[in-house]
Amino acid sequence: MSLRDEFTEALKSAMRAGDAARVSTIRLINAKLKEADIASRPKGVPAIPDDEIQAMLRGMVKSRRESVVLYEQGKRPELAAKEMAEIAVIESFLPQAMDQAAVEAAVAAAIAETGASSVKDMGKVMGLLKSRHGAALDMALANPVVRAKLAG
Fold first, then answer.
1. What would the CATH number be for the domain defined by 100-151?
2. CA dist 67 to 23, 25, 55, 60, Å?
3. Which fold does the domain 3-91 belong to in CATH?
4. Given this model, what pLDDT does residue 17 score?
5. What's the predicted TM-score (pTM) here?
6. CA-CA-CA-CA torsion sign (47, 29, 141, 144)
7. Do 3-91 and 100-151 come out as alike in CATH topology?
8. pLDDT at 53 > cutoff 80
9. pLDDT for the residue 150
């Protein structure tokens, strides 16, 4: 089942269950998806593929995490809680993320495979990680691990 179908089914079930917060978040996802589809039309792509949808969802999560920090600094816990609830809904559509040990193992394997020996080779390692583990690997978590292993 494609992510688009998952969004449709999740929206229907949330509406049946009367879960207003989930319905609202899925509608935000659908709006962002429609926006991305419209932006891709000049490139000759009628609808973005699932890997780009996952990247879009990760971007949505990232912006909400930043908002949570700002709301907590501004002493607005109710808004931070709303953002955290949206993050939970959005992440339910993403594949399970790799834990720290799996990230370190993937980085070590990528370094060995590329033959990287210094921080100058970081681009090769990151490129391999992205192509191999794409949606399951948070590149923001992998970056400092790669940098530390190549520097030391």
1. 1.10.10.410
2. 20, 15, 18, 11
3. Hypothetical Protein Yqey; Chain: A; domain1 (1.10.1510)
4. 97
5. 0.73
6. positive
7. no
8. yes
9. 84
